[in-house]
Sequence to fold (74 residues):
Amino acid sequence: MTDRNYVEGKKPDREIPPDSIGNLEPAKGDEEAAGRTSPFWVKCWNCHQFLTRPLSPPQQQAYTCANCGAVNMI
Ligand SMILES: [Zn+2]
Fold:
């Protein structure tokens, strides 16, 4: 079994200012197929896809899923 080495995205329970929402990028298909996860991955609460978040800067608390457009809080 692999460790859960990623962040579970959460559905926002409050309004998030648009300027504090970053963008997630789709994970590379190969890596996802191999089951490799990283602490910089976010699993979208809505579509359950793995996406990568920028390594820096870490100020943003929410990211838009590139796959379905849902906002994920982390
Ligand atoms: Zn999504």
Observations:
- The first strand starts at residue 7 and ends at 8.
- Residues 6-73 form one domain.
- The mean pLDDT is 84.
